[in-house]
Specification:
Layout (H helix, E strand, L loop, with lengths): L9 H18 L2 E7 L4 E6 L4 H30 L8 H17 L9
Length: about 110
């Protein structure tokens, strides 16, 4: 990895966990476990897609939701302090790194039935 490490705060971690749960419900996947840590993410899911596609969808949706959260925070900050700015690039990289890490350490077959 070439990006600097980024630590997710409690609100961001909760957003990621909720996004994973919501996406599983929408897709009809079985979410067995989700554990969003400050610097990585663990997901155990039964899905009807190849694991790379599952990871890609989680990555995309978590990125969207964290960007939305960042935009809300930026609006709140600009309302109180217009000079204060913060980018969302680190948030995106943190989610991508977390999901990649989980993919490397956990090989749960997509077709596994419980």
């Amino acid at each position: 990895m070439t990006e600097d490490a980024y630590i997710l705060d409690d609100e961001q971690r909760q957003r990621v966990k909720q996004t994973v749960a919501d996406h599983c419900a929408i897709r009809g996947w079985i979410l067995h476990a989700v554990n969003c840590r400050t610097n990585h993410l663990h997901i155990v899911v039964t899905a009807d897609l190849h694991p790379k596609k599952v990871r890609s969808q989680f990555k995309a949706w978590c990125t969207r939701r964290l960007k939305e959260l960042e935009e809300l925070e930026a609006k709140r900050r600009s309302a109180t302090n217009p000079k204060r700015q913060r980018g969302s690039k680190n948030h995106l990289h943190a989610v991508i790194r977390a999901i990649d890490f989980q993919r490397k350490i956990s090989h749960v077959p997509a077709s596994r039935k419980c």
